[in-house]
Design a protein that fits this description.
By secondary structure, the chain is of the alpha/beta class. Helix content is 44%, strand content 16%.
């Protein structure tokens, strides 16, 4: 590709061989690999090491959330792995995020620490049920401000919050965006947008899973998205 492909494929499956075969086939058409909890709980650090040998940058979507001391300890394990990005939940608070960032910044890998704001599977009704006031955008802005104060390198948000975060915080924070869908789908993602619109709004990286991995032809699906992004 003649541009830096921003698409990280969400590999949410427990079988290592299948994950490796999939990513070998997609490597020429994507920018990186996102490994989530399903993969990590099944394959652990060794699985991350194996996937990194494919030559694509690794995004470990660990979503760390615990007391500061525990998260700092977990982050020490993360930075021993070949990962470029790792997530924690912003709702864990300022001290927790600061503890994680301190470990990451003091490591050789120095991965981006990304704070998850509002999961893309949640809508306004879901937020109200958990006692959170305001809109999803209000909550994302609130948590993003806290995360950046803690020193996090970037934010994870839905496509619908990207423009508001850029307006509030400028170009500096990295915005990594899941819930990206070439077409509206009937899955558990509720706050979505298509790849070109998401990138145009100011996203740095796009996380795309099932529209590629569950497609009848994953390679064709990934190639089509890459070509659309390059043309835009």
């Amino acid at each position: 590709m003649s541009f830096e492909n921003p698409v990280f494929v969400a590999v949410d499956r427990p079988d290592l061989e299948g994950a490796e075969d999939l990513m070998r086939s997609l490597a020429a058409h994507v920018g990186g690999i996102k490994l989530g909890l399903e993969f990590f709980m099944a394959r652990g650090p060794e699985g991350v090491q194996r996937m990194a040998r494919l030559g694509l940058p690794i995004f470990l979507d660990a979503k760390l959330h615990d007391i500061p001391n525990t998260v700092a300890g977990a982050m020490r394990g993360v930075v021993a792995l070949p990962v470029r990005m790792v997530t924690l939940h912003a709702i864990g608070g300022l001290d927790m995020m600061r503890a994680a960032v301190a470990v990451a910044n003091d490591s050789e890998q120095q991965p981006w620490v990304l704070a998850v704001t509002v999961l893309t599977s949640l809508d306004q009704t879901d937020l109200q049920a958990t006692g959170q006031s305001g809109t999803a955008t209000t909550q994302a802005l609130r948590l993003a401000e806290l995360a950046l104060r803690a020193g996090c390198h970037g934010i994870v948000c839905s496509p619908l919050e990207v423009a508001a975060l850029r307006a509030a915080f400028g170009k500096e924070p990295k915005l990594v965006v899941p819930g990206v869908r070439p077409k509206a789908g009937g899955d558990d993602q509720k706050r979505t947008l298509d790849p070109v619109e998401t990138l145009a709004a100011g996203a740095d990286r796009l996380v795309i899973g099932r529209p590629i991995t569950a497609a009848a032809d994953p390679v064709a699906a990934a190639r089509a998205i890459a070509l659309d992004l390059e043309a835009a």
